[in-house]
């Protein structure tokens, strides 16, 4: 899937930033509408550029990746988690399901996230910064942890795993670590599951519709897909969700701290004027 490169995203961010600066320099009736959109698009495009650029850094080696992948498999076994291999065998038993699973993995996660951000920005602007910040924390955490290289299940044919994407010709991974759209050995954490959690949890939190619970399926299906394709271990998704929850909690704590500081720095208002008390007449004795 030919997603935009880091330099294309950087150019888009620069153009959006220029538009934001221009409309604020000469305020008009459209400034209030165009400036926030340009500002947020510039930020998201810049983050996307950093995400794509990070995989090109020389730190992205294969050292220790295979051993750590086997360690993850052993930890999952010790925790009595269900085997990813059983799920893959079930999917492989139905060609249409295996093909759909591969297509879902390769194409859905980025458009779904972008559609969610657009919806949240225009329909629930007050909640947008909270989930945007949670997304930033999650993605930054994934970029840092990815330098601890972990091989995904598809690299272990001796354990019975198959590369489902390569089998159906829909793989986003190249023949080596420097090719393809995505990084071969960045299994931990799963950015697919993390971004899907942003979409599902964000819709449930922001929307008031009874149908909002339907979108919980997005993170559930994504978790099943990344495991069935042998691109991720279960724990890859667990770590991604924990990063998101940590980011959201940090954002909430930061907002409360700033609100508390603003409250403390607010100058005291003038003393309130109270009406003088009216003296009560003594009760006349009962005759």
Which shape, going by the Cα principal axes? Answer: globular
What count of domains describes the coordinates? Answer: 2
- Summed over residues and divided by their number, the pLDDT gives a mean of 84
N to C succession of SSEs: HHHHHHHHHHH
Question: Major beta sheet, specifics?
Answer: none
Structural class call reads mainly alpha
Q: Count the helices. How many?
A: 11
* Count of distinct strands: 0
- Taken as a percent bin, the fraction of beta residues is under 5%
Distance between the termini: 100 Å
Low-confidence parts: 176-181, 283-287
Rg from Cα: 26 Å
Helix content: 55-70%
Fold blueprint:
Layout: H1 6-25, H2 31-54, H3 65-78, H4 84-92, H5 95-107, H6 109-123, H7 128-145, H8 164-167, H9 191-206, H10 216-228, H11 234-265
Helix pairs in contact: 1-2, 5-10, 6-9, 7-9, 7-11, 9-10, 9-11
Would you write up a description of this structure?
- The chain has 287 residues and is mostly helical.
- The protein has two domains: 1-54, no CATH class; 62-255, no CATH class.
- Helix content is 62%, strand content 0%.
- It has helices at residues 6-25, 31-54, 65-78, 84-92, 95-107, 109-123, 128-145, 164-167, 191-206, 216-228, 234-265.
- α9 runs antiparallel to α10 (216-228) and α9 crosses α11.
- The radius of gyration is 26 Å and the shape is globular.
- The N and C termini lie far apart (100 Å).
- The relative contact order is 0.13.
- Mean pLDDT is 84; it is low at 176-181 and 283-287.
